[in-house]
Amino acid sequence: MGMTLIEKILASHSNKDLVKPGDIADVYMDVRAARDFGGANVVKNMLDNGLSLDDPAKTFFTFDCNPTGSDQKYAVNQQICRDYARNHGIKIYDIDAGIGTHLLIHEALAYSGSTAVTTDSHANILGAVGAFGQGMGDQDIAAAWNSGKSWFKVPKSIKLNFTGVKPANVTAKDIVLNLLNKFGANTLLGYSVEFHGDAIDKLTLDERITIASMGTEMGAIILLFTPNEEIMKFSEQQSGKKLELVKADEDANYEQIIDIDIAEFVPRVSRPGAPHDTVDVGDVKKTKIDSAFIGSCTNGRIEDLRAAATILQGRQVAPGVVLKIVPSTDEVWNQALNEGLVQVFKNAGALLSNAGCAGCAAGQVGQNGQGEITISTGNRNFPGKQGKGEVYLASPAVVAASAVAGYITTPDDIPEEPMIFMPKEEKTTTSKMERTKVKERPKLVEGRVWYIKEDNIDTDMIYHNRYLAITDINEMGQYAFDNLEGYENFAKEAQPGDIVLVQKNFGSGSSRQQAVDCFIPLGVQAVIAESFGAIYERNAINAAFPIMTYDSLEGLDLEHFDSIKVNFETGEITNVSKGKTVQGNSFSEVQMDIYQRGGIFN
């Protein structure tokens, strides 16, 4: 039996002839990187635990979250990273370089069959060139810096076979929004997904990057493309050496093979609050907007800027609408300058910033305010992710057309006169609490349950990105769930010994460790969910914070604030208040081992 693409990559990097789904592999990482917000915590973990650096030549910092150096706390963290890099011979892609994952591709640090980890939850964007990339928390990254390796559970694979011809008005962003409409946020949770078919082979590198960048929003471990001849030539040219094409075996075993007719795809838009809540653009046409954003690791490529410039040429952004454009890398920025695109943007009245992540990072170009309606090319529109306003997700063409019209529209339906801007009302809310001490956690815990009946509670809902500069774990608890609607007062009302029980895909989104750590100072004993986001699961296990899954709660007769008992060793979940028990999924051997040791560093 042959291997899938991810199995071949993981096997070749763990000194194994064969791996299969469920195996735990100790994977050698060709690249180990940290960004500016996570980097300071990685350094802290290295220093606090007395860890040495395995290979400085394979270790990198990428400053893309705050490329303007405009935030004092970010500036402090960046300088911590610079000092550590100088002392240990680590290369920094500083604030003038651009998005780290894109740089890994352009510098040919990531290529067909290679491996990489970084604190960026969209590191799986490297699937665009057939590389294995994963976003991880700061503890995970520090461990990889120290050993050069990271343990990984080999995922099951799904093969998507695309048939038909892509419609001319369907962009790469539309492809992934159509896939989100089909699969939602958790159908592909935990899978490696391979893309195949004639329509896929014709996609450019920029288009593949756009699609691969939203694998995280689909819950997938990674979306993997086998490089075509053009992309292999690009990687070889950038690296200056001959590279081997790594692809799945013909007799590879897939969990599912799904045929998809790309001819049926249409331009789509994600409605505010969830990337997977996508609709035909026509369903939201003439929705008034306050601002528009073109950029992010999903759509900050030169092809994206060209598409926007084609629409903006000879036109003006609607009065009162702010159009913000951020290239993904400095190389793309300079290419846009040389091609005259920058002048087109400036003539149209757009704001052009230096390269970086922009709207996805707090305090950067692309954020919006309370009541503001934004149409964005980003990959996430979780509440609060890009600010306190509402965010629609769309392709660069739709965003540019909408910026001119003053409302959501398509390039073929731009009005002669734009819709006039109307201001919105403002409101703000805050939530704070006093610190509490953490209790000891045995294998069997009992406590009051917070029964939150929601799927897809993402990391911005758990711990918002505006608090990411905090490194003291004792300060994190006061912000737990303050961005989850209906639970903004969780930190005030939680009691030591409480247990949180939720539904599918808890912790989707960012790689931030704080979304795990914020529960610790509150004395929360465990989080129980039907399933967890892949990065969140790793972060919790490595921090020795108890998480456990269940298949069904049927028969438990559970109500909010019931007293429940959870056995991490047997998997039993008991409703003490009702005297009923169901079988959950006990800790794995690896999880129990790390839990008993008190964390990955012990």
Write structural notes for this entry.
With 602 residues, this protein is of the alpha/beta class. The protein folds into three domains: 5-264, 2-Layer Sandwich (Aconitase, domain 3), CATH 3.30.499; 269-405, Aconitase, domain 3 (2-Layer Sandwich); 444-597, Aconitase, domain 4. It contains 19 helices and 25 strands. The strands form six sheets. It has a seven-stranded mixed beta barrel. Strands 4-3-2-5-6 form a five-stranded parallel beta sheet. A hairpin with a 4-residue loop joins β23 and β24 (572-575). α2 (36-48) crosses α3, α6 packs parallel to α8 (205-212) and α11 (302-312) packs parallel to α14. The chain is globular, with a radius of gyration of 23 Å.
Q: What fraction, in percent, of the residue positions are helical?
A: 25-40%
Q: What structural class should be given to the helix and strand makeup?
A: alpha/beta
Q: What is the level-2 CATH architecture name of the largest domain?
A: 2-Layer Sandwich
CATH homologous superfamily classification of the largest domain? Aconitase, domain 3
CATH topology of the largest domain: Aconitase, domain 3
Global geometry: globular
Mean pLDDT level? 93
Q: What's the arrangement of strands in the largest beta sheet? A: 19-20-21-22-25-24-23
Rg over CA atoms, rounded to whole Å, is 23 Å
Q: For this entry, what is the oligomeric state of its chains? A: single chain
Terminal-residue CA separation: 39 Å
Indicate the low-confidence ranges by residue numbers: 429-439
Biggest sheet features: 7 strands, mixed, barrel
Number of distinct beta strands: 25
Estimate the strand proportion: 15-25%
